[in-house]
Specification:
By secondary structure, the protein is of the alpha/beta class. Helix content is about 35%, strand content about 20%. Helix 2 packs across helix 8. The model has no long low-confidence stretch (mean pLDDT about 90).
Length: about 240
């Protein structure tokens, strides 16, 4: 097993693994204990007390973070006519219909990170389910990615809209920014995401809902957050 690098070890030594930090303290520690020289992404992992095998305990949603995530996603829009122009004017990177679907099917083209579609295009997009679905790219009305308001959908995605979904292990993973962000911006983004997940608690979920929260940079160690330190958790 390869040894951890010097920067990782230094970062890890600054973290008390037995301690639960507030968001503010955790972000300050994260920024002072960077494990690499490049501008890493900041990730949040939320372990939920749900059983995603049951449809009524699936936790999924999307939120536009207050300060974005530090990068502009490449957006693919399936639309025709006036909606095609609307998508291009809003800043979509790729816009088309059957031509793009064929490119994805025949060439394995996946040079995009978000997919938006007008409702009338879902017949075309539906044929791509086996390709887009496993990658979390399938447009969904609940996430605002199947819509006639393609311009607003594109702008939201470009502004840093984050989609979250609990995985088979009951964990949500999401990027909330870059290590170069100001501490308060990272706190704001994390609080916005955690608040959205708290509000998405299924009525059928029993016991402790947020069991464990941790933040980390791409190459850094995890820092555990005290769920009870979140204002919405205290009010719940």
């Amino acid at each position: 097993m390869p040894k951890s690098g010097k920067r990782y070890r230094q970062a890890n030594e600054a973290i008390d693994p037995a301690k639960l930090y507030t968001l503010q303290d955790a972000m300050e520690l994260l920024k002072s204990a960077g494990a690499t020289k490049f501008d890493e992404s900041v990730d949040v992992a939320i372990n939920l007390g749900v059983d995603p095998r049951h449809a009524d305990q699936m936790v999924r949603g999307a939120i536009v973070l207050p300060h974005g995530i530090g990068k502009s996603a490449r957006i693919l829009v399936f639309a025709k006519g006036a909606k095609e122009k609307e998508a291009r004017d809003a800043g979509a990177d790729f816009v088309g219909a059957e031509d793009l679907a064929k490119k994805i099917q025949d060439e394995g083209w996946l040079d995009f990170e978000r997919v938006i579609a007008t409702p009338d295009m879902m017949g075309v997009v539906g044929r791509l389910g086996k390709v887009l679905g496993p990658r979390g790219l399938m447009p969904n009305p609940k996430l605002g990615t199947v819509t006639m308001d393609v311009a607003n959908a594109v702008r939201e995605q470009k502004a840093g809209k984050v989609e979250y979904r609990v995985d088979k292990a009951g964990i949500i993973h999401a990027v909330i920014g870059k290590r170069s962000f100001d501490t308060q911006k990272l706190v704001d983004n994390a609080a916005a995401l955690l608040g959205a997940v708290l509000r998405a608690k299924p009525a059928s979920a029993k016991g402790i809902y947020m069991k464990k929260i941790s933040i980390s940079t791409t190459m850094g160690p995890g820092i555990r957050i005290d769920p009870q330190s979140l204002p919405e958790a205290q009010a719940a």
